Amino acid sequence: MKFGVVVFPGSNCDQDAVDALELMDQEVVKLWHKDHDLQGCDFIILPGGFSYGDYLRTGSVARFSPIMNEVIAHANRGGYLMGICNGFQVLAEARLVPGVLLRNANQQYICKNIYLSPQSPDALLTAGLDRPAYKIPMAHGEGRFFADADTLKSLNDNGQVLFRYCDETGAITDAANPNGSLENIAGITNKGKNVFGMMPHPERAADPALGNMDGRLILDQILKTVLV
Ligand SMILES: NC(=O)CC[C@H](N)C(=O)O
Predict the structure, then answer these.
(1) Spacing, Cα 85 to ligand 1 middle (Å)
(2) Which ipTM value was assigned to this complex?
(3) Is the pTM of this model over 0.90?
(4) Domains identified in the chain, total number
(5) What are the catalytic residues (predicted)?
(6) Residue 134 is part of which domain span?
C-alpha cells in the first residue's frame, strides 16, 4: 500500500505522519497542496497543523487547495482518506464527513494526553481495537465536535462514531471530555466508512522513543483492514 501525506502551508504534523508510517515499513510520499496528482497513493492522510494560519476558520482555506479536487474525487471513488486534527477540520470543511469542529468549550488551546474509547465495530479503523481505552495526545484549539440532532442520530445509527473521549478505564464521562465535544465524540467516519477524521494524534504515539505506542495500535488497523 502506498500512502500520501498532503502538505499545506502551515501543516506541522506531516513529518510525524511520514515517520510513523515509515516505522511501519510503509511506502509514503508527501503531496504538495498545489499539485494535482495523488501519485498513485492508495491511502491519503491530511495531517495536523495550522493550514493557512487557521484563517478564517481552521481548515476552511485548505479545503480549497488545488490538491483537494483530487483528494475529494479519490474519496468519492471509495478511496481511503484520513484527517488527523487539522486534517479532520479540513474534512469537515470539505463536507467529506458530517458535523463541524468548534472552538474548545474553555476557549483554550489544549495540549495533553487523553484517552479514547473505540466505538464502531465495523469501521476499518476501529473494528480490530479491543482495549477499553487508548492513550493518545491531543493538541488543538478548535476540536469541539458539533452536529445537529438529525446528523448526530444518523452518526450513531450507522456506527459512524469512531472514538469517544473516555477515562483510562474506558468510562465515557463528562469529566473525561476535554473540549466539550457533543457526546464525547473525538472521531467519526463518513457513510461509506472510507473517510476517517479524528482530533487526537495517533502519529504522535507511534515511536518507541516516545514511550507510548497506543497510536501505533490504531494506525496498525489501517494495514490489517485495508489488506482484507
Ligand atoms: N494540531 C493541530 O492540528 C491543530 C489544529 C488547529 N490548528 C487547532 O488549533 O484547532
Answers:
(1) 6
(2) 0.95
(3) yes
(4) 1
(5) 85, 201, 203
(6) 2-226
